[in-house]
Every structure is written in structure tokens, then in C-alpha cells.
Amino acid sequence: MGRIIYVSPRTKAPVGGIRTMYRHVARLRHHGFDAYLYHVDQGYRPDWFQEDVAMLYTADLRAPNRLRLEPDDHVVFYESASNSIRFFSQYKGATRHLFCQNHFLMFDALHDLGAANWQALDVERCFASAGIIARAAETCLGFPTVPVVPYAIDHVCFRPEPKSLRIAFMPRKRPDDLEFIRRCFSGAFPDLAHVAWTEIHNQSEERAAEILRESALFLSLGRREGFGLPPVEAMASGCLVAGFLGIGGREFATDANGLWCEDDDLVGAALKFGQAVRWVESQDSAASTMIDAGRRTASRYTIETMDAALIKYWREATLSVQPQPLSARAPRL
């Protein structure tokens, strides 16, 4: 059985999709697969989460007149991996996969490279991180079957603790909208001016989880999401969640587990969030009921569930029986 090489984006910012790639590699190696994370910057390892995975860099793969790849290797691209696709095109023998975590980005590399479809880039298989993404990829990308490997939440890290009346939020997807929403909130609910707002931005996974554990509420600012992990992590942490789903959040959202509003209904978001704060502050039973529903939703996203789908996908993709432990194999590099 060959190697499985996930190509990471170059960005070093904390992003849930990148965290998921590293988690896949770690779990694959745990189950005996020869899996690696490829990063273009020599020696780079992320410092914003704790996951020690096997890394490959350009120098590890480059050889005179070719790449150090074998026919039984597998290379996993992300949606906008244009430069890495060019790099790996120096060798045609390995099997290419697309791991699609956001259907809003699924044409990015095709546009950059002037390709009609992913198959023209020698990508043979696709898998996705949510059902809504898989359905889009099957319909629009020409892959007959797109298996889903669902997200996993670290429930040891993202867990409820005693709360303070604090609003946690991640502004990355809607920085301008956030100011509008906060002004609407202040105008409509002047009596709630004492409520603290805590930003989560460019912080470690542990620090983000700590803020969620301590915060009673989470304002979801998703936009054009493939899934949208932050509100589910907030649910797991026992927050009352309100705000936007970014389309992809329809995968997990119900009327019971959050106060959701239509995308770009900024005034509506402020009003719903004011309602959420009032529920929490008055200890209304509606708040505890919704928080409990959110925790039940988040409980579906476990390492065990992800592992089952991940291992099934790669066993089928590699046509492999039970892989040998890594300690029993000679090194490839």
C-alpha cells in the first residue's frame, strides 16, 4: 500500500478545514496507514493546535527529473490547490483525490488552471466533509459518488463549564457585518450594554475552546460555509447559539438547537441575538432547552464516527485489506 499525502494550504492562520486535514492524517496513521501532510514551507508545523503528524516538504519529494512518488501513492488536493496541482503534475503515476470541504470553492483551482473539470487535472476521486458538499460535488463536478467523512469535535476540549454572561464570536467571515449587527443590538437593547463581547481570532484551538467554555452565548457569523464548525463547537461547549448558517450550516441546524436567521438579515440577527441574551440572563427554560438540543447535535460529531467513514474511504480507495502497522514497514524516504 502506498502513501497517502494530504496537501495543506500554505496559510498558517487557524482554520478549521486545515485542522481537519491534520486530524485525518493523524487518525490514518493511528490506524496503520502510511499518511503524511505536505506543506510547501520547509520545516513548518502549525503551533495553534496539538497534533504531531508526519510531514513531507518539497525537498522530500523532489528528485532529479522527477518527483519521489510511486504508482501506489495517493495525493489529496483541496479546492484551491492550484500551485500544488502544478507541482504534483510533474509525476502522473499517483492517484489524485479532491477533499472538498466547501462547495463554494470547488471551482477555484479549475478557474486558476483553465481546466474544464477536475478529471482534466487527473483527479479520479472526491470525498467531502458534509452531505451538502457531497451532493453539490456529485451534481456539478461529475463524480458519480462522493463519500462523506464527517467532521469530528474534540469533546474533551470543547465541553461545558460554568458560564459568564459573555458573547463569543468569530468575525473572520463577516467583519463589516459584525459592526452593523452590534450597532443594531445596542440600539434595540440598550439595557444589555453591560454584556461582554469576546472575539476569537487567530488564537490557538485551546484558547478558542477556553473562551467558548466560559461564554454563555455564541454569535454565529458564518458566510458561504461548506459546513461551519464554530457553531457546533459552541454547542458542544454549552453555548446558546444564534446567527447565520452560511448555507452549509443547514447540515446541522434545526429550530430546536439555535436561533437562526436568513443569510444577510443583519437586523434580524441582532434582534434574535437580543432575544437569546434575554433568555440566558433571565434563566428562561427556553435557553436551557435550546442549549441541550445543541449539545445533542454536537454529540454526533465524534472522532469515532469520523474514523469509521475515513477508514472505509481509504480502504476502498487503496484496495487494501488491514494495513500493516507502520513499525513493520521499511521507510519510504
How are the elements arranged and paired?
Elements: E1 4-7, H1 16-30, E2 35-38, E3 55-56, H2 58-61, E4 62-63, E5 66-67, E6 74-77, H3 82-88, E7 95-100, H4 108-113, E8 123-128, H5 131-140, E9 164-169, H6 175-188, E10 196-199, H7 205-214, E11 215-225, H8 229-236, E12 240-247, E13 259-260, H9 266-281, H10 285-298, H11 303-318
Parallel strand pairs: 1-2, 1-6, 2-3, 6-7, 7-8, 9-10, 9-11, 11-12, 12-13
Antiparallel strand pairs: 4-5
Structure description:
- The structure is a single chain.
- The chain is built from 11 helices and 13 strands.
- By secondary structure, it is α/β, with parallel strands linked by helices.
- The strands form 3 sheets. It has a 6-stranded parallel beta sheet, sandwiched between helices.
- Strand 6, helix 3 and strand 7 (95-100) form a beta-alpha-beta unit.
- Helix 6 packs across helix 9 and helix 8 crosses helix 10.
- InterPro entries: Glyco_trans_1.
- It comes from uncultured bacterium pBIO2151.
- This is Glycosyl transferase family 1 domain-containing protein.
In total, the number of strands is 13
Q: What's the arrangement of strands in the largest beta sheet?
A: 3-2-1-6-7-8
> Which regions have little confidence, pLDDT < 50, spanning 5+ residues?
320-333
* Helix-strand makeup class: alpha/beta
| Main beta-sheet strand count, sense and barrel state | 6 strands, parallel
Structurally, the number of domains stands at 2
Share of helix among residues?
A: 25-40%
- How many angstroms does the end-to-end distance come to? 15 Å
The arrangement of helices and strands along the chain is EHEEHEEEHEHEHEHEHEHEEHHH
CATH architecture tag of the largest domain: 3-Layer(aba) Sandwich
Q: What percent strand?
A: 15-25%
Taking all Cα atoms into account, the compactness measure Rg is 21 Å
Q: What would you give as the CATH superfamily of the largest domain? A: Glycogen Phosphorylase B
**Highest CATH level, the class of the largest domain:** Alpha Beta
Could you tell me the CATH topology label of the largest domain. Answer: Rossmann fold
Count of runs of 4 or more consecutive helical residues: 11
User: What would the average pLDDT be, to the nearest integer?
Assistant: 94
Shape: elongated
Protein name: Glycosyl transferase family 1 domain-containing protein
InterPro entries: Glyco_trans_1 (IPR001296)
Pfam family, one: Glycos_transf_1
GO molecular function: glycosyltransferase activity
